[in-house]
Amino acid sequence: MSSKKQKKKADSNGKEMPFLSHLEELRWRLLKSIIAVFVMVLIAFPFSNQLLEILTYPNNRMSTPPKLIFLHPTGMLMVRFGISIAAGIILALPVIFYQFWKFVAPGLLPREKKFIWPIIIFSTVCFLLGIAFAYFVMLPFILPFLYGLGTESIRPTININDYIGFVSRIILVSGIIFELPALSYFLTNVGILRPHYLKKYRRYAVVIVFITAAILTPPDPGSQILMAVPLLLLYEVSVWISVFVYKNKAKKAALRRD
Questions:
Q1: 37 CB burial (10 A radius; 0-12, 13-18, 19+)
Q2: What is the phi/psi pair of residue 62, to 5°?
Q3: Which residues of 49-83 are buried (b: 16+ CB within 10 A; e: fewer)?
């Protein structure tokens, strides 16, 4: 019997998987995620020109947009590869989330495993909402501010590699931050997180939020507030999600006792 079949048999019998089996499982989950990203990158690359137009739109829509240039012969090729990789990661998110939840599933109770698909869908939606927020709200605010720091004699001419790197980082970080409600939903369902913990440490969360916003955004109050306000709202949403899930679990537990 192969090691993979032995692992499945051990899981079905409820026995604890040995450490090496965990590593093997993690390796396969990572490999499948990487393959999914690779396939999506290949699919996205032919559309890299359209994706480039989308990413440069926040710059080009300005009344006097800075000129975007590339400084090396392979500059645009690297930009297209970078855009394709970012798009591949985003397109492969359902597979990545699925592989992650399948990795942690052996440690969950049967009643907890039924939440995997709702969490996968919820996680994907939250990430896409974070991307939309960065693209439609943050970038139209941040870019004009940064460009406005120039003077009459010093006008911005931006390397396209630097521009795409900056925009991609803002978009991906925003998507990750918007995963907070999905994380709250999952951790409360499995019993790791309780609502009163989130309420108890709310004041500390506010401080962490503003520190995080200061790290992730340019050093100006407007951009920091623009990042901090959604983070605070997401924290409050996470609290209410945790409250709802916790009460629902308590209600079901009471019904089972009756």
A1: buried
A2: -70, 155
A3: eebbeebbebbeeeeebbebeeeeeeeeeebbeeb
Ranges 26-35, 74-83, 249-258: which has the least confidence: 249-258
- The pLDDT of residue 54 is 94
10-14, 115-119, 140-144, 147-151: which range is least confident on average? 10-14
Q: What is the pLDDT of residues 178-191, one digit of tens each?
A: 888 888 877 787 67
In order of 64, 78, 86, 139, 166, the CA distances from 211 in angstroms are 33, 33, 26, 20, 20
8 A C-beta contact, residue 238 and residue 181: yes
* Residue 191 in tokens: 């019993």
40: tokens are 């999506």
CA distance 131 to 237: 18
Find, among 160, 154, 143, the residue nearest to 69 by Cα: 160
Q: Is the pTM of this model over 0.90?
A: no
Say if CB 67 and CB 157 are below 8 A apart: yes
